[in-house]
Design brief:
mainly alpha, elongated, single chain
């Protein structure tokens, strides 16, 4: 049987869950962008009759893995902290993800 303490504990955890869901959607958009780039570049290369280099594939795969990894790190770092600190970790993670993604996309031109 649930006690009043467990009900209060669940009530205190819902803002953290809501933060995770809202920021998770932003990270999911980053992932969707990376998947779109993989599909687009592979399609364009196929239409041109060329193959993407190994370095280009590496950059594309890393750009898909990166948002997931950064989101997990932001969750783990902000897990036992206040809501504002959690939001700061999520925002910083998004900034790192965006900056790294732009660096990886510019690296494709050299690959």
């Amino acid at each position: 049987m649930p006690t009043a303490d467990s009900a209060r504990e669940r009530y205190r955890q819902w803002p953290a869950l809501a933060l995770g869901i809202v920021f998770g959607l932003f990270y999911a958009y980053d992932l969707w962008e990376a998947v779109g780039n993989v599909l687009t570049l592979a399609g364009v290369a196929s239409q041109l009759g060329i193959a993407l280099s190994g370095a280009a594939w590496l950059v594309l795969i890393v750009s898909m893995i990166l948002p997931i990894a950064i989101f997990i790190v932001a969750i783990l770092l902000g897990r036992s902290r206040g809501y504002l600190v959690q939001a700061v970790f999520y925002v910083c993670g998004l900034a790192v993800s965006a900056a790294t993604y732009l660096s990886l996309v510019s690296a494709i031109s050299f690959a």
